[in-house]
Amino acid sequence: MTAILSMNRITKDFSGGVRALDGVSLEVERGQVHAICGENGAGKSTLMKVLSGVYPAGSYDGSITFEDHETAYRSINDSEHDGIVIIHQELALSPYLSIAENIFLGNEIATRGVVDWAKTNREATLLLARVGLDEQPSTRVLELGVGKQQLVEIAKALSKQVKLLILDEPTAALNDEDSAHLLDLIRSLRGQGITCIIISHKLKEIRNIADKVTIIRDGKTIETFAMAETDEIEARIIRAMVGRDLDSMFPPHTPEIGDELFRVENWTVHHPVDTTRKVVDNASFSVRAGEIVGFAGLMGAGRTELAMSIFGRSYGSHISGTAYKNGAEISVKTVSEAIGHGIAYATEDRKHFGLNLIGSIAVNISAAALAKISRFGIVDRFTENKVAEGYRGQMNIKTPNVSVLSGNLSGGNQQKVVLSKWMFSGPDILILDEPTRGIDVGAKYEIYGIINALASQGKAVVVISSELPELLGLSDRIYAISEGTITGEVNRADATQERLMHLMTAGKD
Amino acid sequence: MTTTTPERKLPKLQIDLRQYGILAALAVIVLLFQVLTDGRLLLPGNINNLIQQNAYVLILAVGMVIVIIAGHIDLSVGSVVAMVGAVSAISMTQWGLPWWAAVVLALVLGAAVGAWQGFWVAFVGIPAFIVTLAGMLLFRGLTLVFLTGGTINALPAEFNAIGGGWLPEAFGTIGEGRGDRDILTIILGILAAALLIGQQLRSRAKQRRLELPVEGSISFWAKNVIAAGAIIALTFQLSAYRGTPIILIILAVLILLFTFVLNQTVFGRHVYAIGGNLFAAQMSGVKTSWINFFVFVNMGVLAGLAGVVTTARAGGAVASAGQSFELDAIAAVFIGGAAVTGGVGTVIGAVIGALIMGVLNMGLSILSVDAAWQQAIKGLVLLLAVAFDVMSKRRAGRR
Description:
The complex is a heterodimer of chains A (509) and B (399).
Chain A: E1 3-14, E2 18-29, E3 33-37, H1 44-52, E4 61-66, E5 69-70, H2 76-81, E6 84-87, H3 99-103, E7 110-111, E8 114-115, H4 117-131, H5 146-159, E9 164-168, H6 176-191, E10 195-199, H7 203-209, E11 212-217, E12 220-226, H8 233-242, E13 260-270, E14 278-288, E15 292-296, H9 303-310, E16 317-325, E17 328-330, H10 335-340, E18 343-346, H11 350-354, H12 361-366, E19 374-375, E20 378-379, H13 381-394, H14 411-424, E21 429-433, H15 441-456, E22 460-465, H16 468-474, E23 477-482, E24 485-491, H17 497-504
Parallel strand pairs in A: 3-10, 3-11, 6-9, 9-10, 15-22, 15-23, 18-21, 21-22
Antiparallel strand pairs in A: 1-2, 1-4, 4-5, 7-8, 11-12, 13-14, 13-16, 16-17, 19-20, 23-24
Helix pairs in contact in A: 4-5, 8-17
Chain B: H1 6-36, H2 44-69, H3 77-93, H4 99-124, H5 128-147, H6 157-164, E1 173-174, E2 181-182, H7 183-209, H8 217-239, H9 246-264, H10 266-276, H11 278-283, H12 288-314, H13 325-335, H14 347-366, H15 371-398
Antiparallel strand pairs in B: 1-2
C-alpha cells in the first residue's frame, strides 16, 4: 500500500491566539475510504481547508505531500487542478442553472468562449450514469432534493478527474434511503480507484464504509487505526473523541427541584423544504421547576430544530405533538403565544436570530417584552434605560452604558444581552441553545452562574450544548438526541462522557 | 475579558457625528448660497417659498424614512400624489363635496392605496420594489383615466389655502409700510421655542430622577439655545412676509408626531427591529407582517396628504402632477443618513435631507443656474452624501 496523501505536523493559528490545529498528522492510503472523527470544533474542517488551499500555503506550519510531491496550494483552484475536490456540508450549486451547467460551471466545454452544448450534455449524461442519478442534464437543480444535489456535486467532482474526494458530513442532511445510496456510490468509487476522505459523526456509517479512521480532538491527532484491527470500533472512537478531564470550572450549585413545569409529548417535525424528511421524530421530554436539563447531541442531530419548532413553530413543517405547562396543554403556534406562556428561547445564532446588531443594548434587552415598559403603545424610554442599566450591572455586561450598539460587543457580552432580553420577558421556561458558544472561559463561568441562579429562582431551564463537559457540569438530567430521536435520558449521577457519546451516536441501523 | 477600551465611547460619538454632520452640511450650504446670492437666499419671501415649495418632499420623506427603515422602498408615491389630487379635485368640482370632505376623502384614498400595496408586500411576500413599481404605473394610469387628459381648476379657496395660504393676522401687525410684521407669527415662534426648551428640561429632570446619566449642562444649553434661536429667527423673518404658512403648521405637527412614533412607540420600535434584523424580530415575537402592512398604509396616507398639498398649491389637478416626487423623497431620506439595508434612519435626518435639496434648488434658481445643471448637481450631492455615509461606517467598522 502506498500513501496518496500525507499531512505532516500541521499547525494553524488564528488571530487572537486561537490554535485550531496543533501538529496534526494524517496519512491516507491510495484507494481507501478514510474517515475523520472528532467533536464539533475539534479541527476537522480547518484541516480540510488547509489541505484544499482555502488557507493558502504559508498561513500554516507543516508540510503536505500529495502523489509524491509537496504541495503549496494558494487556492481551491490549485488543489482541484491536482485532483483534490472537497464537497462541503452546505452544497454549493446554483439553483437556477441546470444539472449540466452546474457540473461544468467554471470548467465549461467551449471553443473560443462559445459553449458546446451537445458535448456538454453528452458528458453530463455519462457522469450522471456513473453516480446513479436518473435525471435529465437539463433539469434545474432547484427541482432536486438534497440527496440528488449531493450526487450532482459528486458528478461535478468526477468531471474534474478527481483523485481524492473529500466529503464533509455528506449524510447529515439526507434521509435514510439517500444516505444508503450515497454510501453505495462511495464504495463503487473506491472500486474505480478514487480515494475518499469522509468526515462524519455517524459511527455506524463509519464502521460500514471506512477502511481506516483518524480521530482528532482539540486540534491534535489522537490516533489512527484500521477497521480490521479491532472489534470494538465504536467504543474505541468514542474513547478517543472525549478522553479529556472535566474542567473544574463550574460554580457550585445545589438544585432545589420542584414539580414538573413543562412537558412535550410526541413532538415530530419535518424539514421545511424536504417535507419527507423527519428532522425530529416523536420526541418526548419534561423539565421540572428549578431543574437544569441538558440536551446532548451532535450538530445536525435535531436539537436546535426541536427547540425552535417548540418556540412558535420557528422551524420546520408538518409539526405535530403536544406541549404542557403545569400539566395543562398549551398552544405554541406563534412566537408571541410561546412568549405569552412564559417560554423563552435564546438562540445558538446570536448574530442571525438573536440580536439587532445595529440596535443599542437597551433596545435589544426590551425587544421581547416591550409591553412591560409601555402604556397605550408608547414606550417609556427612561424606564427602558433603567431596566437595561439594571441588567448591565446584574449580568456584568462590560460597557460604559446601554446605548452602545450590540454589534460592537464581544461574544460574551452579546450573549449576556441575549440572556438579559429573555430574563426580562419574565419566563418560566428557558431554552438556552449553545449558551457559551464562541465565548472565552471567564465569560463562560459567569454564564454558568447565571444559569444556576435562574434554576434557583424556580425556573425550568433547558440547556442545549455540543460540549459534553458543559452538560455534565451544569445539568441535573441529560437527554441525548441522535438523528432526530431522543435516544436516552441520564441522571447527573450516572452520566459519563462515554455513555452520552454512545447515545448521541446511536443512530438507526 | 475581551472587552476593549475603544468599544466604550465611540459608538455614541459616531451616531452624534453622523446626525450633526448632516446638520452641518445644511448650515454650510445655506451660508454658501447666502453669500453667493448676496443675502437674497434668506429674504422673508424666499424662506416662505422654500417651505411652501418643498412641503410635498418633507411630507413624503417622513413616510418614506419609515418605509426605508423597515427595509423597503416606495416608488409609487409620485403617482399616488397625482391620483389623489385628481380624485379630490373631481370630488369638489363634479360631486360637489365641501373642501374638508375632499381632504378626508384624499386621506382615505391614500390609506386604501397603502393597504393595497401593503397587502402584496406583507402578506404575499412580493418585494416592495416590484409592488410599488407596479403601483407607479397603475396609479399614474388611473390618474389619466380620471382626468381624461384634461386638467381641473377652479377649486375652493379654502382648499387652495392648505398649500399656498397663511394663517390670518389675528393680532395685527407691528411696524409700518413694507417693514410691518405679523404678530401671530412672532408669538408662535416664541411659543415653539419655549415648548422645545420646556420639553427638554422635563425629560432631563426625569432622567435625573431615575438616576440615568444626563448630558453635560454646557452642551445641553448650547444645543437648545441654538435650536430655539433658529426657530425664533426663522419665524421673525417669516413675519415680515405674509405670516405663517398654513402648511408650516401641518409640517411641524407631522415632524413632531412621527419623531414621537418612531422613538417612543412600540410600533416604532418594531419598525427598527424589522429593519435591523428581521429574523431576530420574528424570534422576539414581533408580528412582522402586520408591521410591514401598516408601514405602507401610513405611507399611503402621507402620500394622500402630499396629493392634497400639491393640488392645493397648484390650484388644480393635472395628470402630470407628482412626477419624480418619489425620487426626491428617497434622495432626502438617504441624504438624511438612512441605510439602504434598513434599520437606520430618523425623521429629523430625512427632514434635513429634504431641506438640503430644497435650499440647493432655491439657491441655484436665484443664481439663474440652468434647470438641467440643477438636476445634475442634485444627483452628485446625493451620491456624495451616501458615499460619505458608507465610508464613515467602514472606518467605524475597521476599528
